[in-house]
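For the sake of transparency, this paper describes our internal protein records without simplification. The remainder of this section carries one protein's record, kept here as part of the documentation:
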Amino acid sequence: MKNNAYHFITHWRVPSTCEEVTRLLGHAPDLPRWWPSVYLNVWELEKGDPATGLGKIIRLYTKGWLPYTLVWQFQVTEVNHSHGFRLDAWGDFAGRGIWTFAQDGNAVNITYDWEITAQKPLLRDYSFLFKPIFAANHEWAMRMGERSLQLELARRRAQSPEERARIPAPPGPTFAAFIPRAPKLPPLNSKSRSIA
């Protein structure tokens, strides 16, 4: 495995249905609202299939607990209705991610299989030295995702405005004062051309 290659498998379990989890994780523009510790901004560049999202292209501005940000894109390249989807990524990351959802009683077992190479110069050039720290950054981001998803599901199930108000806000980004402004959306939207 190259120094800048990473392979992570994350498991979550949340009280929900596969359909609900698919709607939440499959609608990228909402990620900054309910998973703000990682997703700073999201742009939908191409909508893809209206029923399944197949083919949609998303641009993301993200971070973990370390004080650096990432700009990358993904395209949904496979959809297994209500049981997951595959995305192919390029930009500061290049590779693929596979979300899998399995109903288990009143809960959903969620697996995320993320296999990438780091293309951002900081990550690419220093992975040989800081790979465990960069890996810990990803693991932190996914812990925040599970916590944020649980809070979002609780908000959706709240029976009253008072009950909803008692649910804490999702964890926000670290080093918020040092986060650069989101990069401008470029006019290009094709994987075959460079997107800065």
